[in-house]
Amino acid sequence: MEFSDKLKSLLKSSKNVVAICGAGISQESGVPTFRGKGGLWEKYRPEELANFDAFIKNPVLVWEWYNYRKKLISEVNPNPGHYALYEMENLFEKFFIITQNVDGLHHKAGNKNVIEIHGNIMHSKCIECDKIHYDVPIQEKVVSIPKCECGGMIRPNVVWFGELISENLLMDSYKLLKDCQLLFVIGTSGNVYPVASFPIIAKENDAYLVEINTEKTTISYMMDEILEGQAGVFLPKIVEIIKN
Ligand code: BJW
Ligand code: ZN
Hints:
Radius of gyration: 18 Å
Order of helices and strands: HEHHHHHEHEEEEHEHEEH
CATH topology of the largest domain: Rossmann fold
Bound molecules: ligand BJW, zinc ion
CATH class of the largest domain: Alpha Beta
Strand content: 15-25%
Distance between the termini: 17 Å
Number of helices: 10
C-alpha cells in the first residue's frame, strides 16, 4: 500500500501540520536543485558562491549566478506539488510551510502561511546600511554591481553560509515544529543546518514525520514514513485522501 493506515488517519485527525520544503519541490517547475545530478551551476558547489567572502572577492561572479537564477525563476510557475500545499492551507485547521527555497513559488501558488527561512531571491539589501531594495533589475550581463544611495554595494537578500537566520523566523519555526502533529519533509537533501535539524524538534514533541523525496537522504533515518518519489505526484494524492 502506498500510504500507511497511520498516515491516512493522521491526515484526517491532525489540526496542526507543517511542511518543510527544499529545492526538490521546485524541480518539477524547472528550477534546478543545488546538489546532485542537474544541480545548479554544476561547476560550482553552493558553498563556494553562497557566502559573503565569495561576494566580496568576486561580486560580478556572484551576481551573475543570482541574475541567471532570478531570470529563470521569473519565468517558471508553481507545479502540482505547490498547488497541493496551497489546498492543504485550506484543509487543515493550521498549516504552515517552512521553506528553504528563495524562489517565491509557494506565494505564487497562493499560500499565505510561509516562512522563507533563507530569504527571497527577488529582494536585495545594502551591505553597508542594510536597506532592503525591491527593485534591483535583472542584468543579462553584469556590467556594474548595483549600489545603494549610501554608496554601499547591494547583495541578494538571502541567507548565505556562515550567516545567521533571523531570530524571529527561527522562533516562529520552533513554535510551529513543537506544536505540529504531522510534519512533511519535502525535497530537501538535509545537508544544510539549522533546517536539517528541524525534524528532530517535531519528533521530540511526538509529531509523525513523513519524508517525500526522489531519493533517500541524510535525514531519512529520522522519519516515520518515507514516500520515495516526486513531490508533484505524492502531494496531490495526499490532498485527495484528506478530501475523501
Ligand atoms: C526531489 C525532487 C522531486 C529532486 N520531488 N524530491 C551544524 C553542523 C554542521 C554545519 C553547520 C551546523 N550549523 C550551521 C552550520 C554551517 C552551515 C551548514 O549547514 N553547513 C553544511 C554544508 C554542513 N549553515 C549555515 O551556515 C547556516 N547559518 C547558520 O547556521 O548560522 C549560525 C552559524 C554560523 C556559522 C557557523 C555555525 C553556525 C546558513 C545556511 C544558509 C544556506 N543557504 C543556501 C543558499 C540560499 C540562497 C540561495 O538560494 O542562493 O540555501 S545553500 C542552499 O542549500 C540553499 C538551500 O536552501 C539549502 C538546502 O538545499 P536543499 O533545498 O536541501 O536542496 P538540495 O539540492 O541539497 O536537495 C534537493 C533534494 O530534492 C534532493 O534530496 C533530491 O533528491 C530531491 N528532489 N527532485 C521530491 N521532484
Ligand atoms: Zn545603503
